[in-house]
Every structure is written in C-alpha cells, then in structure tokens.
Amino acid sequence: MPFRLLISLGLVCVFLPLHHGAPGPDGTAPDPAHYRERVKAMFYHAYDSYLENAFPYDELRPLTCDGHDTWGSFSLTLIDALDTLLILGNTSEFQRVVEVLQDNVDFDIDVNASVFETNIRVVGGLLSAHLLSKKAGVEVEAGWPCSGPLLRMAEEAARKLLPAFQTPTGMPYGTVNLLHGVNPGETPVTCTAGIGTFIVEFATLSSLTGDPVFEDVARVALMRLWESRSDIGLVGNHIDVLTGKWVAQDAGIGAGVDSYFEYLVKGAILLQDKKLMAMFLEYNKAIRNYTHFDDWYLWVQMYKGTVSMPVFQSLEAYWPGLQSLIGDIDNAMRTFLNYYTVWKQFGGLPEFYNIPQGYTVEKREGYPLRPELIESAMYLYRATGDPTLLELGRDAVESIEKISKVECGFATIKDLRDHKLDNRMESFFLAETVKYLYLLFHPNNFIHNNGSTFDSVMTPHGECILGAGGYIFNTEAHPIDPAALHCCRRLKEEQWEVEDLMREFYSLKESRSRARRKTMRSGPWEPPAEPGTLSSPENHDQPRGKHPAKQRTPLLSCPSQPFTSKLALLGQVFLDSS
Prior knowledge:
The protein is an alpha+beta fold. Helix content is 43%, strand content 13%. The protein is built from 17 helices and 25 strands. A 3-stranded antiparallel beta sheet has the order 7-8-9. Strands 10-13-14 form a 3-stranded antiparallel beta sheet, with no helix packed on it. The longest helix has 33 residues, at 490-522. InterPro entries: 6hp_glycosidase-like_sf, EDEM1/2/3, Glyco_hydro_47, Seven-hairpin_glycosidases. Its EC number is 3.2.1.-.
C-alpha cells in the first residue's frame, strides 16, 4: 500500500500500512517477536550491504552502493556494529570481525579526527567488544579482561586523543591529528558536549589498564566546564578552550550540549560518584527553571534565561530516557509523548522543529535515522511497560523500512516533507538505532539481565564477576559492564599499599640515620646499622605515580570525561546563524 499524505493546516501526516503484529482495532500492542525479526532483518540488510559495497571504508553510501571515509578511516561501521552482532546473537560473525579489526585497523595515520567521535565510536566500541568477547566465544588471553587485543587497540586510540587536552584550561580541542597531534592552526572553539563526554570510556579504560592519565585529563576538563557555568546555573553551547570564554551562549539540552548531561548521570551510575550526580541535579534545576515550557525544552540565553530559539531538536529526544535513569518517570513520559507527536506528524524526527509553528525549520528538515527517541522508548518501556512505547518502536520500523530502505542499505532522509534521500548511512544506524529497536522488542536479552545470572572469571587479581546486568550505554550505545571496572583493581591497590609501606619504611630509616649522625657528632660511638640501612632513601621517597600515601584515589573513581566534537554529527546548530 503506498503512502498517503494528508496536508492540512500546514501539517504533514504520514499514514503507514499496518503489518501483521501491529495493533489492531482492539488496541492490542505490537507483537514483540514479530518486530524483533523485522529489526534483525533490517540490521542484516544494512550490515551486509556495508560489507559487500563499502568495507574497509568508514561508512556506506547506499544510493551509489559504495563507501567513503568520514571520521578517520577506521572501518568505522564495523567497529560500531560489533557489539550489536552479539546482542542479535551472532557470535560467529563477532569472532570473525574481531580478527578483521586486529589485522586491518591502524591508528598511526596522518588523519585529522574528531576527538569526540573517535572516543564514543572507536574507543567506546572497542572497549564494549573487549568486555563482551568471552560471552561471544572469543578465546581470550590470560589476564582478560585486564588485557586483550581489543583493549590494547582502545588504549592506542585513546592515547592519540590525549594531545587535545593539553590546553591552558584543560578543556580539549575538538580535532586532533592522529600522527602529529593538534594542528597549529586548529580552532580553540569546542562545543560543550565536546568537553563533557569522556567519562564512561576513559574511566573504563583507566580501570582496566591501571593508567590514571585518561581519568585525570577527563576530570580536569569536566570540572573546568562546571566552573564556567553562569550565575543562573546554565552552560552555553561553545567555549574557547584556551581562554575559557563562552563563544555561543545559547543554553539547552540538545545538540552541542546533550551528551554532557548524559554523561554526568551515566558516569555517576557507572562509578557510583555522588559528586557527578549532584552536578547533574543542579543543572536539572536550572534547566527546569529556565528552559522547560509545557513539557518542551527551549533554548535560552545562558546568562539571562530569555528564550533564544523556541525549537525542538531531534537530538533532544534522549532526554526522557535520561530522566528515567534518575527516576523522574512522569515528566519523562510527558515529554516523550510530545516528541512522539512530532514523529507521527512526519514519520521521523526532523533535525529542528519549530514548536510555536508546529513545523520543520528551513534547512533542518532531514532525519539521518537517529536513535534518540527509540533510545528513550527502550528505557521507559523497561521502567513502565507502557505499550505506547512499543507503538513508537513499531512506527519507527515501518517508517524506516518504507521511506529509507534502498537496494544497498538504508539512506538518510534528506527531507521528511517529501521523503527525498541522501547518499549516506551513518554508522550509528547499526550501533544505536537498530540496537535500541531490538532491545525494545527483546525483554529477555542478556543486556536486560537483572542480576539473576552472572559469570565468574578468575583473573590475576582475583575473582571477577561479569555479565550480571546494569550495563551502561555510552552515547553511541556501546554497553559497558560496570562490574568489569572492579576486575583489574585489586593488584593496583595492593601495589599502592606496598608503596605506602615502603615510603614509611624508608622514612623511618631516614629518621634513624639522622639520629645516628647527630649522635656521632655529639655522643658516643654506636655499632653500624644492619645491612641495607645505608641505601639512599631519596630513590624511594618519591611515589611511582601520583598517588599520595594517605589520600589516594581508588582506581575506579574515574574522572568525568569531556566529549570533544564539532557540531558535525550533532546537528550543526549554530553554523548558519551568521
């Protein structure tokens, strides 16, 4: 049945044909098993098209059936899709791709890469796949999960990003050259999310490797951003990382800011960090006081709170899911239903939607198959079981298949008004959109484990419990097992304890040595000390790392990490406001 468009009062309504498994006249909810299979078929149509037409390029161009590099020439779609393969139950392909990535991906290349995108897609994807490897049947090496080829790749990629953090403020540049570091002419203006979205990946990396440098740079950047908020508690959209001055002063929850708030909450949960949660709750008060109107969230001036843009952005649709994580279910559902009405109006979420006019914004009419509304539906369905959320999942499957599906995958929708397509399939379609849809319709997936089952793994540091649930998704939907952060901790803490004892030992010896020298100058001769006491204490007083003897930071209290990116993928919010 072809689409029927009803144009009335300036609104476009999309009526999609109902398939078996969709609600009937009696209002029954969509059949989850039916839509699970539909979603799985969507994944393999896109994934197989990428392998056949685009690999080893980053992403598929579905209209011309070829590929192109977009974020750094990493075979990005393969990395982004890896954990989705396991969630769909395909362990054999997971194992094959792990081998392919080890053989083909090289980060020692002369490429300018987005710090944010490389972190969330590459570092996040590799860390997630590393932690899921044993579950996927990969033969892991001794010492896993504290060692392994994917972990080493993730660490290598993250180290390529560290030069970006070498600024006077500690807030990172948005782009770094993977071979040469930050280019001399690189712009110092970075979006807020580009400074606040590293904690999940970098904290995990520091915990698994024992190297605190990733936590350290991330916490510094996050705190500088927190200290830069306005007197009314809001942050702007872009800041100069050299001076700390705000360049774009529009405050909201959408593009350029979004995952900063997301990572305060997820970082707090992952690390059990009360300070991160307290920071978010303070922001949440200001957001509700100044940007919240009739269950919509507008953009306001960060110092005055006056409305600057009365628009809804598709990237804001993550917010109800985030609200559900802090238990604010009622507000989350009301906002979700507002966003769902926009989906019903167009068969997708336009990048910008003018709330007073009830229509799209010029040059922002597209829908690149983003996951955020589906992500919120998944979280809220886990919290409420409301069948309305399954209906959103059904509508998403029907819309994407009918509007976006082409011979070689699924194409970005360039304009939701006339369904024109663009020649791109973002890697997040396989990493996030399909994954969240599948998990929405698969309540018994291992990702949803409630702790009733788990795996016990023996590591060089002791017994480690994995797979008990509570997975934390990074902003690219790569799940991190929070229990894994404790697996590699004991040995490091014991090392610090030994270092403390050694410092105390040599400090005591130094005191005794001074006492002996004083006695030799003014008192009777004493017999020589026992063998070993003449060793110079200077070589032992200095700690091997930055871990003070009395106030050391546990390896797992990992730092909030900045999310550095220009607005490229974030919607290019302010690029046209010249």
